[in-house]
Amino acid sequence: MATDLPLRDSEEIQGDVLAGFRKDNVSVLFLKFEDAARARDWLRQLNPQIATTREVAAFNEAFSKARRTSGGDDPKTLKATWLGVSFTYEGLRMLSTTEPFPQPPRSGTGLEAFKEGSAKRAGALGDTGENSPANWLFGNGKGQPVHAVLKLSADSEADLRTAVEAQRIAAAEFRVLIVYQQNAQTLLGSRRGKEHFGFKDGISEPGVRGFDRPDAARPEEVEGHPGTRIIPAGEFVCGEEPAPGSFRDFPDWARGGSFQVVRRLAQDVPGWWSQVAVKLKELRLAKAVPDAATAEWLAARMVGRWRSGAPVCHFKDHDVPNSPGAASDNDFDFRDDLEGLVTPLWSHLRKTSPRAGLQAPGPASPPLDAGALDGRRIMRRGTPYGAPFDPASEGPGGPDDPRGLLFVCYQADIARQFEFIQADWMDQPDFPPGRHPEPGKDPVTQQADDVDFESREPDGTVKHTPLSFAQFVQTTGSVYAFMPSLSTLRGLADGRLVGPAATTGGQAGQGGQGGQGGGQSSGQSGQGGGQTQTQTQGGQTTAPGGPAYPCDEIVPVPDQWRRAGQSHFWACHGDTYRKIAVADGPAHTDQVVKGDTPLSAHPCFQGIGRIDCVLPMADLQDPGGKSWYWVFHSTGGRQQYRAVSISGGSRHTGTLERTDRDLGPWASLSGVDRVDCFLPVPDQQRAGGKSWYWAFHTTGGRQRYRLISVADGTGHPDTLERGDRELSQWGSLGGVDRVDCFLPVPDQQRAGGRSEYWVFHGDAYRRISVADGSGHPDRLVSGSRPVSAWNSLL
To answer: 265: closest CA among 126, 161, 152, 368?
Structure first.
């Protein structure tokens, strides 16, 4: 790939956004998560299958080259199946167990539109009456919610069926419900590249700065595509440089991603063409069209292009289906037709992209430069669905057979781009503004009651003929989603949304987990009650408030507990871990001891993509210089565990002592889907030959806890001491939906009859204490703060 086009090499941006899957066969699965933990497992196995921009761009370039070499035929040996995934606001919240926007997004922004969703905003977009959410097949806000959108694209129907079946099996395994499936397919033969009304589609897509090569003579346009303007990449990918005046204040998790609109648009093809014929008769009676005008002539003016794609502004009288280059002609801007006498102001082409033919209100105002509208462009990826209309067919293709357009578009700001085009341009009769009479709505997709058809009389005056169009395109489903970067996808699979959008947790509740106690916050601040410091890692300086390193599990290094006033820990995150140190004392200053290391670097962790939790074998800590642990991890949608040992000394060599097993041998974990973490009962460790633990687990989609014990000796028999209870029983965990792990405060264990812990939940942590004795009353020591307050976890 060319180094001067860095976005073509991106392995962060999903492949459909900039490169486009460009496949003939498409299926979109609208998904609902039944269980958040299983959904994260589903995403973890899906992530390696997601297509990147680099992969798709390289394939498309090779495909185009082979097609040119073969004289226009599709190469038979070049095939690929692409997958892309996006999430609704509720889907992100469910996966991460945090609010993606802890503070309400600013009114009028695309972030607000994304959070509210398309059903809530339908009225403002003209989705009323038959188009209202009440009639939608998905995304209506009342039936099954949509949490994720999975798009699959393949060269052949057989390849697509295979891919969809594989995803259906995976969805069933991980308790992901397919709410709706919409298949779509490029039309065949002479209809190829066209939508069901018969017009070529997807001609006017913009170029992207940093992805498309600029023309040497006209650097604002794509090389080899005259008239195709290059738009700043930040209009489609969050975090890239946008056009002047566009929104920039995205949360960190949005960087490298794109907001997606998916709409199912049903098309009544015979009704639409019948209407065209009726309106042509009205115009003939009004003597507003040439005698030779046909239904094709009027339909081309409604669209702005002829069926072949040739623009009306260059070919006024008839289509030129065999003219080389005419079907992809974008080299026009309407400056020479400001009144819309050739290409009507209300045509679909001008309503969706006015180019340089838009004038500001006011007498003799000059037309706006095309660059002034860069912030209103969208990247469309639509595909027709259903069989093409065949009036003689009694089956597929008949008048009542479902058909339409599966509309997909990408942008950085749904409100400023898609919604603005839909509501302020297409559905606004007074656009372009300042015209008398008003131009009218877009008659291709909207109900347009007062369209002003302009024609020139023999004496040169302009004649205005009013027309009224019914709507023959119906919205039958709509979803707003976000297509994250690959890094954000990996974070979501671990239940994380990093950056400033992370939640800071809730307030303390009442009551103790043993039925006694509850407490007041001590009001201490800082990561451990003290100050935080800037930390330098890997040659770069980071500071609190930067990207955090939320933890799946934190394990004390067995021979490095409170040595020389410091305790060392292994902090695990995804498929890596790092070694950190926490000092004794009121500040509990922390630092990185050793940077990130892949789990796969150690034979005892081979095959583990993420450690869920670790339970030390209480009677096997440092006998003979090594310590033993049970390591719980999820693979293929179910949790397993293995036994490992770690030697003392400087290398801490790990050994796999027993291979993976299912949870079945643990009698105390019967009925548990996945163990999230263990908290030792402080005064019940190796008491009477056994150790007691609170086991926090996710089962049935929410986290609970139970009390178990594990005996010393051969076999380490375990016992369920008390059944499941809700987290609300812990007053110190008020407002927390899910605990990820506990970290003991080193110098506050069994101090004055109490033990203190830092509790990590999502991208936040808090500090609690648990008392010895009956009921083990707990209290909140200090409330939730962002994990970024830890220098060692930046």
So the answer is: 126
Mean of pLDDT values over 102-113: 91
Strand partners, 751: 754
Strands 207-208 and 176-185 turn out to be unpaired
H-only helix segments in 100-216: 110-116, 157-173
Identity of the residue numbered 466: P
Structure tokens at 673: 């889907």
Distance from C-alpha of 613 to C-alpha of 629, rounded to nearest angstrom: 10
Sign of the torsion formed by the C-alpha atoms of 95, 96, 101 and 103: positive
What are the b/e assignments for 495-506, b being 16+ CB within 10 Å? bbbbbbbbbbbb
- For residue 24, CA distances in Å to 49, 59, 80, 82, 483 come to 19, 15, 11, 12, 21
**C-beta separation of 790 from 554 below 8 A:** no
The span from the CA of 257 to the CA of 76, in Å, is 32
Q: What is the DSSP letter of 390?
A: -
Dump pLDDT digits (tens) for 160-177.
999 999 999 999 999 999
DSSP conformational letter for 206: P
3-state helix, strand, coil in the chain (%, to 5): 25, 30, 45
Tokens 């080299």 correspond to 331
Beta strands in 534-575 (DSSP E): 535-537, 540-542, 553-556, 566-573
Q: Read off the DSSP letter of residue 426.
A: I
pLDDT at residue 502 is higher than 50: no
Domain ranges of the chain: 6-483, 503-612+664-793
Query: Rounded to whole angstroms, how far apart are CA atoms 228 and 325?
Result: 13
Q: What is the DSSP code string of 314-382?
A: T-SSS--TTSTTGGG-----SGGGTT-SSS-TTSHHHHH--TT--B-SSTTPPBPPGGGGGGG--EE--
Q: What angle do CA 753, 551, 709 make, to 5 degrees?
A: 45
The helix/strand/coil state of 276 is: helix
Strands ordered across the beta sheet of 611-616: 611-616, 626-635, 638-647, 654-662
Q: pLDDT of 308-323, one tens digit each? A: 999 999 999 999 999 9
Please name the residue that has the structure tokens 């670790």.
614
For 376-410, write each residue's pLDDT tens digit: 999 999 999 999 999 888 778 888 899 999 999 99
Q: How far is CA 138 from CA 31, 35, 171, 415, 476, in A?
A: 10, 20, 18, 21, 8
Say which residues have a Cβ less than 8 Å from residue 608's Cβ, sequence separation at least 6: 575, 599, 600, 631, 633, 635
Taking 90 as the threshold, does the pLDDT of residue 3 lie above it? no
Residue 692's pLDDT band, with cuts at 50, 70 and 90, is: very high
At residue 549, the pLDDT reads 66
Alpha-carbon gap, residue 699 to 457, rounded angstroms? 76
Phi/psi of residue 112, nearest 5 degrees: -65, -45
Instruction: Report pLDDT for 540.
Output: 31
Q: What's the pLDDT at 624?
A: 83
> What are the angstrom distances between the C-alpha of 725 and each of 105, 707, 728?
36, 9, 8
pLDDT tens-digit map of 221-279: 999 999 999 999 999 999 999 999 999 999 999 999 999 999 999 999 999 999 999 99
Q: Model-level pTM?
A: 0.69
State residue 547's pLDDT score.
Answer: 55
Choose among 503, 460, 10: nearest CA to 211.
10
What distance in Å separates the CA atoms of residue 731 and residue 725, rounded to the nearest whole number?
13
